[in-house]
C-alpha cells in the first residue's frame, strides 16, 4: 500500500495549485491536507481528530514555512525531536527566499527547501518533481510502510 503525502498549507490558492500539480504528476498516493502546524502534528502523532487513523508515517511532508498556530520551523523541530517521526522526509515548500529561513530549516533537519515558483507551469513542475521523487523514488526506512486498511479522508 502506498504511503500518503502530507501537505501542510494554509493558503487556499497554494493548496489548490499543489493539489493540481500532484494530480498532474499521476501519483497514486493519497494526499492528506492540513491547514496549520498544530493540525500537522496532531495528524502525525495520531491525536485529536486523527487518533483513529492507521499507524505509519507519510511518504513525505510538504510543509509551508508561514503557518498559523505553529510555523513550519516549529513543526519541523517537533518532528525531528520525536523518535517516531524523525525519519519522515520533510520538504519545506515556501515563498520565502530569506537566507535566515533557509539556514534555520537546514539546521533543524529539513531534507529539502523549495521556493514556490510564481509561474503556474513552474509551480506544477516543481511539485510534480517533488512528489515523484519522495513518493516513488525515495526508499523509506524499513518498517515505515503503513499497514493496509481504512485510509484517512483525503483533501
From TrEMBL:
Pfam families the UniProt entry points to: Response_reg
Gene Ontology BP annotations: phosphorelay signal transduction system
Positions carrying 4-aspartylphosphate: 64
Transport is among the record's keywords: no
Domain annotation Response regulatory: ranges: 4-131
Tree of life domain: Bacteria
InterPro entries per UniProt: CheY-like_superfamily, Sig_transdc_resp-reg_receiver, TCS_response_regulator
Keywords: Phosphoprotein
Protein name: Chemotaxis protein CheY
Species name: Pseudomonas fulva
Amino acid at each position: 500500500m502506498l504511503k500518503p503525502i502530507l501537505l501542510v498549507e494554509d493558503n487556499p490558492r497554494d493548496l489548490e495549485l499543489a493539489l493540481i500539480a500532484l494530480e498532474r504528476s499521476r501519483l497514486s498516493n493519497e494526499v492528506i491536507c492540513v491547514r496549520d502546524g498544530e493540525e500537522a502534528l496532531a495528524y502525525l502523532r495520531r491525536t485529536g481528530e486523527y487518533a483513529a487513523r492507521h499507524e505509519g508515517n507519510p511518504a513525505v511532508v510538504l510543509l509551508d514555512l508561514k503557518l498559523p498556530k505553529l510555523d513550519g520551523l516549529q513543526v519541523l523541530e517537533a518532528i525531528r525531536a520525536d523518535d517516531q517521526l524523525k525519519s519522515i522526509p520533510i520538504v519545506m515548500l515556501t515563498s520565502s527566499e530569506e537566507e535566515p529561513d533557509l539556514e534555520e530549516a537546514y539546521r533543524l533537519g529539513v531534507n529539502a527547501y523549495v521556493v514556490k515558483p510564481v509561474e503556474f507551469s513552474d509551480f506544477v513542475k516543481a511539485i510534480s518533481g517533488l512528489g515523484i521523487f519522495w513518493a516513488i523514488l525515495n526508499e523509506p526506512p524499513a518498517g515505515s510502510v503503513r499497514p493496509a486498511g481504512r485510509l484517512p479522508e483525503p483533501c
